[in-house]
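Q: Predict the assembly, please.
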Amino acid sequence: MTKMLALLAPNFIDSLLLKWFSQETINYVIWPFIQIGAVVTGVAIWALYATYAERKISAFMQARLGPMRVGPWGLLQPIADAIKLLTKEDVLPDKADNYIFKFAPYISVVAAFVVFAVIPFAPSWGVITDINIGLLFVLSVSSVGVLALILAGWSSNSKYSLMGGLRSSAQMVSYEVAMGLSLIGALMFARTLSLSGIVNAQALDGPLTYIFYQPLGFITFLISGIAENNRAPFDLPEAESELVAGFHTEYSGMRWSLFFMAEYAAMVVVSAIATAVYLGGWYLPGVYRFTEAYHQAAILNGNPDGSQLYHGLYVIIGVLVFMLKMAVLLYVYFWLRWTFPRYRYDQLMDLGWKWLIPASLTNIVWTALAIFTVQALNGWRGMKTIESISQGLNLTPSGKAIMVGFGVVGLLVTAGVLSTINWRSRDFNLKGQRRDIRVIKNVPQGKPAVAPPASATPAGQET
Amino acid sequence: MSLVTIAKPTFKEKLKRFFMFDLLKGLGLTFKYNIGAITDKDSVAGRGIYTEQYPKVRPEVAPRFHGAPRLNMDPETYETLCIACNLCALACPEDCIDVIAMDIEITVAGKARKKKVLDEFIFDTSRCMFCALCQEACPTSCLELTQDFELATYSRAGFVWNREMLEQGRETVKYES
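A: Predicted assembly structure:
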């Protein structure tokens, strides 16, 4: 076991590569390629098995078994599906826009996969690149995916595809606003846009991650993320009963599977961001003390080589913790899908514009107020709420308590105010409409225009 | 005068809607099913999962189920129990049984006698409605409708069973569980 971990430690590979390459080439060319290969393979397998997990979980929720025949418990089913899709005929619709039709899936899948460059799966070498605008990069690149959907819908020369493309673009554009705005609250705590920086700030802040300070932001982000991915209950672009399959109705074989993969990869992206920003990413309380601390102590003593194992263990546990948190969020995705029915289109737009965007705006103001309060209380009558603000906002226990209280109160107050405003909203509240229409007082009870004929009386009464 | 009276929501109902009580209840239900499916000890056709892995796991049919016909034989001598009395053919409402008998010469107490024995038995399962009146009529418990339910064949002629098929039974592929 220890030997295996030593193999995974980067120093061993470094010393192997130094025979052929210079240190610079290794650092800036070879290592990124190894990381990219590992991450792309990992994410592809993750997306592949997300389909398996979805089929299994949906089956369990309906008291079924799901795929059982290919391999033990159907574990090889996604591989069989992939082989089937790869060998299928690539059908091009008549009068479709040839080049755009063929190119759109690649835009979709690239937009979904490029984002993984900045996702911090683990500390140290567990992240491909740590850029200081990480979150901005994620939001901007993942919204390029909309372009692929529009192009695919337009170039297919099919009404279903066009309708699906229009719907999904409208949906993604309106939910992108709420998604971006809801993250700002968490950024106020972390004081950086780098995703590794956000995770580090949470790790330094102690056992509470930002989901406790930002329940409103987390819920808003999760809902708009699900809507952004066109997943049920927001799967109007692919509403099977209305639009066959939405924008990818005309796609088959490999190109269809690229869209499919991009959809699942986008799901993984949203859960990864939610994990990094709100659930603390690779941070698990206590892991640092038993692994990385020995390595840091050895560095201080000037002899870091012997403790590389602890460093490798720290990174690998970080990856596992990250995957576990992401898996929980993916389960929530499936869970919501197989529980809730689909929204109507006007309800979808109402939820985006009347609930989520106001809620995320409120969240920004409320978080600013909370941070202001905590800063004002720091030093007031000997109270200490903030420990340091060098790497994110580090709060003392009393500061944490105030912040959690602010979070819960903010969630309830925002929900209350918004439901008061939206309660009478004519478009959203169909029940209210029906009540208004049906309750009509004083309907005139006039006589019938034509008197009933005499023979209409029952024959038995005449004699 | 209202066509349909919809009651105004009470405060309790408003509170339920505010905290999304019904949505959470729905989530709880699906989660309960999921947990039930995972923790189901008898994972096939147990309490949590109702799927039956058919060719591997065969269903238990009802005790009075009538399926494929069979001509029983004497377990010691392997001679057929059928005495070619034709009662089953007479009892059959669908007229799907043909009993073809023949006479053989036997010697009883030194005298030559003729005996009527079974030559061929034709049973058309495509017309049979599995009422088991033939089974009731049989005086020697020879003809019996068993619990075997796999009767599909590749042609219409395959539905007509002869004496050999009725005595031996059809070969079906058995899958390992």
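The two ends of chain B are 66 Å apart (CA to CA). The first strand of chain B starts at residue 69 and ends at 71.
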